[in-house]
Amino acid sequence: MHRLASGHNTTGTTTGSTYRVPVGSSPALGSRRCLQFCQPELVEPTLCASVRLLDLAKPFVSLLPEVEFPYQKIGFDEKIVYTVASVAVYLLASLPLSNVSQGRLADPFTWLRTPFASQAGTALEFGLLPIVTAGFLWQILAGLKIVKVSFESRTDRELFQSWQKLTAVLIAVVYSVLLTFAGYFDPVDQFTSQESVPIWGRLTYIVQLSFMALITALLVELLDKGYGFGPGILALSTAWSATQFATSFVGITTSVTSRGWESHGALVQLIRNIRNKSFGLAIYEAFTRENLANLTQIYIALAALGVAIYFGNCRVDIPIKSAKVRSMASVYPIKLLYCGALPLVFTYAVLYNLNIIGFAVTRIFNTAPFAKYIGQWKLDEFTSSTYNLTCGFLYFISASPKNISPIHLLVRPITFSLFTVIVSVLFAKSWSNISGSSGRDLAKQFKEQDISMIGHRDTAVGKELGKIIPVAATTGALIVAGVTSVAEGFGLSNGLAVGVLIGVLSALTLLESVMTEFQQSGGMGSQFGQLFQQR
Amino acid sequence: MGEFDKLTEAPVEFLREGSQFVAKCTKPSKKEYLRLIRAVGTGFLMMGVVGYAIKLIHIPIRYLIV
What we know:
heterodimer; A: 535 residues; mainly alpha; Preprotein translocase SecY subunit; 3-stranded antiparallel β-sheet; two-stranded antiparallel sheet; B: 66 residues; 3 helices; elongated; SecY_dom_sf (chain A)
């Protein structure tokens, strides 16, 4: 029973933890996880004469802070406390950067921010982007065997992880240097801004942002290493998008705009409008205001939430039976969204990276002729709190609706959808091989747990799974990307819908790992466990 | 024409396989779906409200440091 149950779990961990670092050397926790990542080709001893790229991280390992594996298995209650605490720390970290006036900053990346839990002008300027990018980068490098990593050896795993952390910090350094020199942190309001920030003031941006990237990486590592639930990135991203959604929906805090004080929550603003203005205008304004969240965005996000829950629960059940326990027949579910939100996260990570680089390069080389082909950003004349992409290559793969030319307006949704769909599907197609969750790997796990598919011989299991999984992964990616194209393509939702979509899909993955943990640890006696029991 | 066929072959095949797979899937029934929506929806919103409450701590902090 237990074996079957743990076999059953691996879907959760496989699909969910796919872009997490394959960690795990604590015997209780890691054994299952590390097995799913090891591939037979990688086990061979790497005694090549040349220096491996992986080993170059050795000098940094002792310098980088690292989260130790837990000495004993962390209980269910403790895991919840750790997860909530890390999320709270992350949420509280969005403090304004020193020397930056957040109100006078124009933000070109609003529509990309929610999934990556970032906020303009704060220490979370890049949010999860550096660690996500580094994670994808190294996993892909290892998957394509450009970097040889033997995930069975503890030192290799540690080196791999140190590289990821190092890369994350490096990305944060590079991007903060780029944005600083591009004048991103300078106030846009010429009338009230004083003298420009001195050079040492600019240096502090870089220090603050790279330090925050390191802290984020450590928070993610803490959750990944078994102190908390699920892949850390997904936990933080879910919490952030939920917070963003709640703020946009029922946020009672206000900020001052050109039209006076306005509530952050669209619903609260509607009530406020009804009390102050004529009825028609009140409703019209609640649906169309641009500087803060409006009800249109809320409805699109709610629709995305519904669709995500529906498709997140579609699956194909494969009948399996255990060779040890004769009478046990069970099903192994293969989810339609096999990779979960990952294809979309990857697509948006690509877009976010391209936009940061593009914005910085076009600003720094603003006289160069190629700059206008990359992208053109114009300050929004009504709110002057955002830059809108109006032209260039990046415009056509963006969800920015601002353009005067009707041809641009017609073409952009199509090119944006095409880009999202193609990148997501291609990613999903190769990801199961890269992350070690392909049919072959799954078949190996089945064999280790003495599970066989009903109606198939043991040798054919890998082939059969290999037929189903890529189809599931790519179709799932197509559906998620399609929903995104519809929700975001018209540029009405401004990133909220995609944030909610990724948030809900990640929440489903997390919920799965919470539930299996609950069942396995016999969480009946725990405090939080009783909450789940009532369901 | 032949070349065009070759070009469209892969996406068409992909869509065909995909729709077959979706048709084969076990989908949540209406009752199940409504239950899921309620559970996940409330959970998500609750999580958001808690996150929002945490972020409210920012107001005094910002007041202090700016």
